[in-house]
Amino acid sequence: MKAKIVHLYEVVAGFILSLLGFTSCDKIIQMREEYGMPHATYKLVGSVKDARTGEGIEGLRVTYRRPYPTGENEEQTFYEESVLSGKDGSVQATLQEYYEEASDKLSLRIEDIDGEKNGLYETQELAKKDLDITFEKDSKSNWHMGTYTIGFQALLNDYTELPAEYGVPHATYQIKGTVTDPDGKPIPGIEVLAKLWNQESGPEEEMYLPAGVTDAQGQFSLEEKDWPGATNVRVECKDVDGEANGGLFESASEEATLTRQAEGDGNWDDGTFGATVDIRLKKAE
Length: 285
Known about the structure:
mainly beta; Protocatechuate 3,4-Dioxygenase, subunit A; Immunoglobulin-like; 5-stranded antiparallel sheet; 9% helix
């Protein structure tokens, strides 16, 4: 009796599915395995290379992104998945999701996420028009529509290798001075840190120059290239060697206004700005 019921179920199911375009029991079984919604396989195949040397770049994050279809008043949402480029800069990944013809808003975003470990590379966006997209239909499946292969080649600029004047506005900052004790004697071995900021934007957007240490004459000189626009400097001093420099001194700081020391080249170089800051430290009690 059970066998007859099962057989009757398959006959009825076969009749219903035949009306929907399915013609065999094999397809009934296949439909059960793939039950859900039409889907496709998306393959990323490409490479990211240094624009100057042509060598592959390892460790860049490549993010595949495309919008989900939405109703007229629904907020736009996106499907995203990321992979990292291999040692030779190659990118190969297989993604499987619901089926939709390649959207005009499909894109790839390539970005450097490890800083200067492998060079400092620009972020690049590739739109659909920049990609080589092919589609191979799957004629053996009901729900798996086929495979999209998304090919791409990306050439990225390495900022650490670019000339200073190319695409990176900058200024040179020079901060110098002398650190002395209450009697005016120079103090060696004092750590000096300079913080730069713009008077209008305030200290919230400070830039830091590499720290230095006073020499035997108590003098220091700090220099660095950074974004232009700083107008003020705060020099902070700290005794980091204990009593080795003649005593234990309290920390102190002084502020000064930056003045232009030299003109720039009229392109990306905004010129040289500097200040002389002399600081007298009190002995710690």
